[in-house]
């Protein structure tokens, strides 16, 4: 009998496993992952200011790349911000978690077909009993949330010559605007390796990987880069929240949840590493790890985060519903004229009322009447 089964060995449950192992090593934990490795094949990045100094400390062993700042590019404008940025790779996550946990606390290639508050049933027919289960199996479609999408294909390129980038370019929006707001995201991994993601803030989730690969090739060519090899590829279709009802999203849940399964992500970026770190800390500090207590804790945590992030959903509605898709980049360009601390608070999900006013006032690059209509619609009936 395990004290706790963490179902799904992705980002959120791997962080919970790490924190529990560090703070409560006596706990009989089991991390159950359907795939052959923890974390699948991802690179997760975050700003220093997205997490607390304490979280930054325990995340340190997972960090593979770090940079002192980053830049953004829009037509006729480029800006560097001095906020440190770093990346965690799934390879490192797998390494660190499997080294920290006893060998029998991680089950790989173990796909669950059923989970209940006191057990997980694997495809092989084996039943794993537990005092509690946390479901972290990643995103699950739900009619309770109104979503748009941030979708991308990312390729790790090895170039014939140095790329000459010293820091990430989080948004290069000087590219042709297609399928909503389009930008290229660049992470320089070493002198000749760069992760290039062709990214879209789009209304629909459909992703044509072949088309995006061709656009990455064209982008590399436009920068004069000769590609020697594509070392890895990843793709993502991340949720961007426009509205919805988080209580309905959780209705009927009988086990605790983590990560995207809990509805925990930044509404405007779809990123979830900071939320996953915060949840891992809360669970590791909880006095009661019973099924009921964990369900209440994770549900309340997700509902509180959802309530606190109403402004981001409102902004997303402006971006997706009121702004002309080809001109969405202007909203971002205007945002990036604001002071660095405000930008940092935005990404960290800590935007203040004053920040919100600064983001919204002035001359928004969307038709005012359309904007007002969507602000009203969302704040009154589409967002709970
Ligand atoms: C390509 C990509 C890049 C991203 N980059 C960033 C980033 O830079 N920064 C950031 O903050 N966020 C990023 N995100 C968004 C978000 O952080 C990730 O999606 C994150 O992995 C979500 O964590 P999670 O634990 O909820 O789900 P996941 O990490 O997806 O984990 C779910 C796990 O459950 C397993 N699983 C599913 N079903 C079963 C089953 N039946 N039985 C057993 N196991 C099962 C899956 O195999 C998987 O390993 C990115 C997302 C993607 C897709």
Description:
The protein is of the alpha/beta class and 384 residues long. Helices cover 35% and strands 28% of the residues. The protein folds into 3 domains: 172 residues, 3-Layer(bba) Sandwich (FAD/NAD(P)-binding domain); 97 residues, 2-Layer Sandwich (Alpha-Beta Plaits), CATH 3.30.70; 73 residues, no CATH class. It has 12 helices and 18 strands. The chain has a 7-stranded mixed β-sheet. Strands 8-2-1-12-18 form a 5-stranded parallel β-sheet. The mean pLDDT is 93. Bound molecules: flavin-adenine dinucleotide (FAD). Flavin-adenine dinucleotide binds next to α1, β3 and β17. The site of flavin-adenine dinucleotide has 30 residues, from α1, β3 and β17.
Topology:
Elements: E1 4-7, H1 11-23, E2 29-32, E3 43-47, H2 53-59, E4 63-67, E5 70-74, E6 77-81, E7 85-89, H3 90-100, E8 106-107, E9 112-116, E10 119-122, E11 127-129, E12 133-135, E13 145-159, E14 169-172, E15 181-188, E16 193-202, H4 209-222, E17 227-244, H5 246-250, E18 256-257, H6 273-285, H7 291-308, H8 310-322, H9 328-335, H10 340-347, H11 353-360, H12 368-382
Helix pairs in contact: 1-3, 1-6, 8-12
**Shape-level CATH architecture of the largest domain:** 3-Layer(bba) Sandwich
Radius of gyration: 21 Å
Number of domains: 3
The level-1 CATH class of the largest domain: Alpha Beta
């Amino acid at each position: 009998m395990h004290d706790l089964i963490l179902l799904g060995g992705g980002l959120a449950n791997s962080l919970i496993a790490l924190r529990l192992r560090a703070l409560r090593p006596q706990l009989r934990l089991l991390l159950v992952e359907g795939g052959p490795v923890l974390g699948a094949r991802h690179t997760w990045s975050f700003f220093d200011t997205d997490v607390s100094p304490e979280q930054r400390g325990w995340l340190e062993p997972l960090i593979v790349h770090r940079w002192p700042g980053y830049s953004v590019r829009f037509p006729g404008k480029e800006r560097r911000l001095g906020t440190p940025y770093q990346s965690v790779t799934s390879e490192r996550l797998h390494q660190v978690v499997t080294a920290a946990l006893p060998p029998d606390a991680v089950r790989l290639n173990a796909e669950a077909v059923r989970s209940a508050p006191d057990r997980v049933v694997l495809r092989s027919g084996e039943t794993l009993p537990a005092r509690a289960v946390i479901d972290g199996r990643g995103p699950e479609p739900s009619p309770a949330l109104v979503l748009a999408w941030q979708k991308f294909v990312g390729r790790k390129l090895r170039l014939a010559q140095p790329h000459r980038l010293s820091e990430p370019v989080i948004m290069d929006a000087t590219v042709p605007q297609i399928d909503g707001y389009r930008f290229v995201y660049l992470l320089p991994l070493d002198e000749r390796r760069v992760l290039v993601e062709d990214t879209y803030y789009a209304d629909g989730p459909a992703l044509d990987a072949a088309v995006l690969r061709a656009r990455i090739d064209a982008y590399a060519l436009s920068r004069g880069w000769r590609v020697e090899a594509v070392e890895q590829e990843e793709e993502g279709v991340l949720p961007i929240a426009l509205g919805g009802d988080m209580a309905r999203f959780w209705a009927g849940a009988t086990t605790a949840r983590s990560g995207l399964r809990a509805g925990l992500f930044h509404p405007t970026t779809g990123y979830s590493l900071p939320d996953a770190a915060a949840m891992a800390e809360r669970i590791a500090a909880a006095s009661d790890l019973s099924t009921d207590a964990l369900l209440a804790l994770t549900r309340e945590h997700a509902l509180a985060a959802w309530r606190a992030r109403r402004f981001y959903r409102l902004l997303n509605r402006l971006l997706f519903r009121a702004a002309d898709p080809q001109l969405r980049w202007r909203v971002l360009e205007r945002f990036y004229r604001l002071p660095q601390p405000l930008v940092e608070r935005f990404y960290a999900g800590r935007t203040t009322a004053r920040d919100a006013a600064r983001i919204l006032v002035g001359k928004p690059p969307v038709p005012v009447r359309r904007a007002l209509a969507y602000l009203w619609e969302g704040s009154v009936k589409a967002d709970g």
